[in-house]
Amino acid sequence: MRKKIVAGNWKMNKTLQEGVALATELKDILAVEKPNCEVVIGTPFIHLATVSELLKDSVIAVSAQNCASKASGAYTGEVSAAMVKSTGAEYVILGHSERREYYNETPEILKEKVDLALENGLKIIFCIGESLAQREANEQEAVCKAELVGSVFHLSPEQWKNIVIAYEPIWAIGTGKTATADQAEEIHAYIRKCVAEVYGAEAAEDTTILYGGSCKASNAPELFAKPDIDGGLIGGASLKAPDFKGIIDAWK
Ligand code: PEP
After folding, report:
1. Mean pLDDT, rounded, of the chain
2. Which burial class, exposed, middle or buried, applies to 47 when counting CB atoms under 10 A from its CB (0-12, 13-18, 19+)?
3. Distance between CA atoms of 99 and 220, rounded to whole angstroms?
């Protein structure tokens, strides 16, 4: 049985104190009402150690939003996968479209990050998805496949067990424009087919594929009801505990 996951991506939001307050609020809410899915929060680097300690005995796992493409050394300002792991974080989000676009993260760079994250015992939420122009040219399948081939399809079947895919159409991220549940299901099913071609039907069935892009409490139930949508990667709506909880509740 594949895992259902609701993961938050705080992006570059929240001071350390604000992040601790949000994580505490979420922990308290979910201690009273247990979630029916795995819950992950992706915090900025500086929050990781404190928030991981805070959530140690809770149902919430912690994720970084990035890690370096080099193992260690003279790379000023970078944070390695080993450093992320040492904070107690379990996951790292890699391949987010904002990092691909603003920080020029190519498939080759992402492949290095993927390898280092796995070597250091992190699980990966790997983001893929097409731009509006690519959707209008009906290239969404080719784009998603190329992103998988470029950065994660070299992994062994054993390594693949630590990969969660997040399909995030770029035109839906932070725009309020959600893909319809049917549009999302169509591409999720295609992504699962691609996984089956490389890792076999059983591994594909076990692969968690999240939807991301203006997901909120009002549209999550319809999206999560689709057979190939296993949860969400949530940006804006993960910044307030009640909003995020509303999405987690879509699994009830
Ligand atoms: C994201 O950036 O991962 C995301 C899904 O953002 P939003 O939910 O704000 O569209």
Report:
1. 97
2. buried
3. 25
Does the active-site annotation cover 168? Answer: yes
Active site residue 147: no
Q: Give the residue, out of 43, 170, 173, 239, with the most ligand 1 atoms within 8 A of its beta carbon, to mutate for a pocket test.
A: 173
CATH topology of domain 5-251: TIM Barrel (3.20.20)
Tell me what pLDDT residue 74 has: 98
Residue range 27-79, pLDDT digits in tens:
999 999 999 999 999 999 999 999 999 999 999 999 999 999 999 999 999 99
Cα separation of 72 and 39, whole Å? 30
Reported pTM: 0.98
Distance of CA 175 to the CA centre of its chain: 18
Going from the C-alpha of 213 to that of each of 155, 197, 199, the distances in angstroms are 27, 26, 27
Report the alpha-carbon distance of residue 110 to residue 116 in Å, rounded. 10
Which pLDDT tens digit goes with each residue over 200-237? 999 999 999 999 999 999 999 999 999 999 999 999 99
Pocket test for ligand 1, best of 9, 43, 216 (most atoms within 8 A of CB): 9
240 C-alpha to center of ligand 1: Å?
Answer: 14
